[in-house]
Design a protein that fits this description.
heterodimer, A: 288 residues, alpha/beta, Rossmann fold, eight-stranded mixed β-sheet, 8 strands, B: 590 residues, Pyruvate-ferredoxin Oxidoreductase, domain 3, seven-stranded mixed β-sheet, 18% strand, globular
Chain lengths: 288, 590
């Protein structure tokens, strides 16, 4: 069970509904950060807009709470500017996969060294219950009165198809296993995705704690997450949804590692002086 | 054919046109480089459907041996048409550019049919010459090179200067192609012996040390000189060439990377603005690191929302204006981005805007923009436009050492009423977490910082030569009128003042040019000057008179409605001095 962590804050006006899956995920994340022996000063939580995106406001550490869907570019640049920071994006399924969908793909391709925790409750909670990109087909809401027509977005298969560095799924009802997976995601160098099944108790009366419990199972102990095709096959299962680490690929360098600025030094940019002599030499070498 | 001098000239207006696949603009740039080294000053503009080959296109240059041209002559002196189709299109689109003294040189063997009258055929009254440029360029795929060889020879540019400039400009070609190019240049050059147009250029031997540079290159070099270290871009014409190549044969990106900075090509302007914010959040701000973002109007529409949420973002955003809506006018020019720059994100936002008027003003505009951005710790818009971006001009080499950043201003120097509660200079991360009250207060204060700029002049090295011009000093007519251009419209307005001055003086008017680098908020000196005039004409390449509106708002004097007259051009081409002249004359004489 969770205990006090360095990342706890004394907040008395949390806006989530009692019983919200976000509380569980919040506890899991704070414990994971604590057990990784990270200091709040070296952690940046970046989020967009949504119920999930409020999480950084309730957590000790640096934070950036930005626009809907636009957390990823900000996070990527924070890491590229100061690689010593642990940068974690924490936002919902609408923000990460819908409005921010093109950033999601771009950052996987770039292999930004950040961890993305997407609260996937299959509903828009902040706007009081419309279909999200991950809502199941046929799911009825006051807007989708005849049920959702679209196929639900599958973040894991999309990510694995683009050769993501780390792809995983958790259910926040399981504290210990979820915490272990998040810890591995944060430790992984490269773009790490944690798709977190995280019930909305107020607006999604279908995908409840019970539903998630009955419709998920853990990947087998002998499953090895280094085969992309196999990972893809497991990611598209929908009769019951597998939980665990689907795929790890550590062969690709992270974005900041390929950036010329860090070839010789890992110092963050703001601590540096310009090396004008080096520039002068380069200019001389290019002159006709 | 004997050599017969048609005219001895100090200024030559030249255009080359083509509707096939010749890279005329690259060749024309190489030619202008040779002309500059020979001692000629020039300006250019061009029209092209794409950056490379194919389709109707032209490049125009105004050369002068005695002074730096600002605008183009009404009539062409020489036009070389590499194919008949492009000549037909030139005559149809630009009939006013063809006068009786215009020499039309068509890429063709001599016309054997003496009955054929090209003027009747093309509908001109100009002089026709035929030169077989394609035959002279046999072996090279670039017919324009023989044409420039011929023109260079006519203008008296030594062959070795020409060859060197073309070899440098096309150095990326394989040797075989480069040799063919040199041969066609030489064939064109020697053709003068067979057919001499008799142009004689009177070249001033006192050569000035100038550099040939376009607006985007000048912007890039100014940014590098001001030690910009991080940039983020989504490619968009006409802003992209900021990143292409500086005069060091390096791209701006090469230099940024060599400085240990970070450059990112993004997937959208939304990502570009997001990354800029991330850089700031990660600690890049005043002092050793600077951020730049270059785009065009549609990119600001797309990414502008992000500017509304930031609390402190000392960066420069350049908008190379091309007009909106996004798909409407891809490579035309415009001055439609002023109101967008002031409020790109929401109605309460107010950002400072500066608009360099000439190519060489980029070198002082960039330091000014960063000076304001760093002092006020907010984004500053630098408005350029498509014409300025591709306008190659021979400018006096700026003294870059004098334009190096010194100790940057600090936001904490500002009076408290402008700063809000936060102060996070010299720290690793900008915002103290969770202090939402502080963030909101800072956010509100951010917009009030414009008032500080109203009261304080932060322009580095004001350009008095651009700010005010009185063509007839000493005259003191009773009625005074001013032309008040902004951005690159300055060039045409400056020449229009010369055209108008004598005539209007005889009718009892003084006419002056007044202008400012900072277009929002307006400086006190400009607001004071405005009061001296009975009538103010504001020429702008947009359809609503955006700067005239700003003028009325900033003076808070609605009697100005009567005094301020907009001269609008929404054809998305630059003004000519004659257009401004005609409109003002029409207004005053009616």
């Amino acid at each position: 069970m969770s205990k006090d962590t360095k990342f706890d804050m004394d907040v008395d006006d949390i806006a989530w509904c009692p019983g919200c899956g976000n509380f569980a995920l919040h506890r899991i994340l704070k414990s994971a950060l604590d057990e990784l022996e990270l200091n709040p000063r070296e952690v940046v939580l970046v989020s967009g807009i949504g119920q999930a995106a409020k999480l950084p406001q309730y957590t000790k550490g640096n934070m950036f709470n930005g626009l809907h869907g636009r957390a990823l570019p900000v996070a990527m640049a924070i890491k590229a500017t100061n690689p010593n920071l642990k940068v974690i994006v924490d936002s919902g399924d609408g923000c990460t996969y819908g409005e921010g969908g093109n950033h999601f793909t771009a950052q996987i391709l770039r292999n930004s060294d950040i961890t993305v925790i997407a609260h996937n409750n299959m509903i828009y909670g902040l706007t009081k219950g419309q279909a999200s990109p991950t809502s199941l087909k046929g799911f009825k809401t006051p807007v989708q009165v005849n049920g959702v027509d679209n196929e639900p977005f599958n973040p894991l298969s999309a990510a694995i198809s683009q050769n993501i560095s780390f792809a995983s799924r958790i259910f926040v009802g399981d504290f210990e296993k979820s915490k272990d997976i998040i810890k591995q995601a944060i430790k992984n160098k490269g773009f790490s995705l944690v798709d977190a099944f995280c019930p909305c108790v107020t607006f999604n009366k279908f995908n409840t704690y019970k539903w998630y419990k009955e419709n998920t199972y853990y990947l087998e102990a002998e499953y090895t997450p280094n085969n992309r095709e196999q990972a893809f096959e497991r990611a598209i299962e929908s009769e019951k949804y597998p939980l665990g680490i689907f795929y790890i690929n550590n062969e690709r360098p992270a974005f900041w590692e390929t950036t010329a600025a860090y070839k010789e030094s890992k110092d963050p940019l703001f601590k540096r002086d310009l090396d004008l002599m080096r520039l002068k030499k380069l200019i001389e070498s290019k002159r006709i | 054919m004997s050599s017969k001098t048609l005219k001895t000239i100090v200024e030559l207006n030249f255009r080359i046109t083509d509707s096939t696949t010749n890279p005329i603009i690259s060749s024309s740039k190489a030619f202008a480089l040779a002309a500059k080294r020979y001692g000629l000053m020039s300006i250019s503009h061009s029209d092209f459907p794409s950056r490379k080959t194919g389709g109707f296109k032209w490049d125009e240059r105004q050369f002068s041996s005695h002074y730096q041209p600002r605008t183009f002559s009404e009539n062409l002196d020489v036009i070389i048409a590499l194919d008949e189709k492009s000549l037909t299109q030139q005559v149809q689109r630009y009939p006013d550019k063809f006068g009786e003294n215009t020499l039309i040189i068509l890429n063709k063997e001599d016309q054997p049919d003496s009955q054929f009258d090209p003027n009747e055929f093309y509908g001109t009254n100009s002089k026709f010459f035929y030169v077989p440029f394609s035959r002279l360029a046999a072996g090279s795929k670039n017919t324009s090179v023989s044409a420039f060889g011929y023109l260079g020879s006519e203008m008296g540019i030594p062959q070795d200067i020409l060859e060197k400039a073309f070899t440098e400009s096309f150095s990326n070609l394989p040797e075989r192609h480069l040799n063919a190019l040199k041969k066609s240049l030489s064939e064109g050059y020697n053709y003068k012996e067979q057919k001499d147009l008799g142009i004689e250029f009177e070249v001033d031997t006192e050569k000035t040390r100038r550099m040939l540079i376009d607006g985007n290159q000048a912007l890039a070099e100014a940014l590098l000189n001001w030690e910009v270290t991080n940039s983020t871009v989504y490619p968009i014409t006409p802003a992209t060439s900021i990143y292409d190549q500086t005069s060091d044969n390096l791209s701006m990106i090469d230099e940024i990377l060599a400085r240990g900075g970070v450059h990112t090509q993004t997937i959208s302007e939304i990502e570009s603005f997001g990354i800029a914010i991330g850089h700031i959040w990660g600690g890049v701000r005043n002092g050793t690191q600077r951020i730049f973002l270059g785009t065009s109007d549609p990119g600001i529409s797309l990414g502008g929302e992000l500017l509304g949420l930031v609390y402190e973002l000392p960066m420069v955003v350049a908008n190379v204006m091309r007009g909106t809506p996004s798909t409407g006018l891809p490579t035309m020019t415009s001055q439609s981005g002023l109101r967008q720059a002031i409020s790109p994100t929401h109605g309460d936002a107010r950002f400072p805007v500066i608009a360099p008027r000439t190519v060489d003003e980029m070198f002082t505009a960039v330091p000014t923009a960063y000076n304001i951005a760093e002092k006020l710790s907010i984004p500053v818009f630098l408005l350029s436009d498509r014409e300025l971006s591709i306008r190659q001009e021979t400018i006096k080499r700026p003294d870059l050492r004098k334009l190096k950043p010194t100790q940057p201003p600090k936001r904490s120097d500002l009076p408290l009423k402008y700063t809000g509660l936060l102060s996070y200079e010299d720290t690793g991360l900008p915002i103290p977490p969770h202090d939402l009250e502080a963030i909101e207060q800072t956010h509100l204060k951010m917009y009030s910082r414009i008032d500080y700029l109203r009261e304080n002049d932060l322009i580095i090295k004001p350009r008095q030569d651009l700010d005010f011009y009185d063509p007839l000093p000493g005259k003191d007519n009773e009625k005074k009128i001013a032309i008040l251009p902004w951005g690159s419209t300055w060039y045409a307005a400056r020449d229009a003042v010369d055209l108008l001055s004598e005539e209007l003086s005889d009718n009892g008017y003084d006419v002056h040019l007044i202008s400012s680098l900072q277009v929002y908020p307006l400086q006190k000196i400009l607001l004071k000057r405005i009061k001296e005039y009975d009538m103010i004409f504001v020429p702008e390449v947009n359809s609503t008179g955006q700067f005239a509106e700003v003028l009325r708002e900033e003076t808070k004097d609605y009697s100005l409605n009567q005094k301020v007259k907009s001269i609008l051009n929404h054809r998305n081409v630059m003004f000519t001095p004659e257009e401004i002249y005609n409109q003002i004359k029409g207004e005053l004489m009616s």
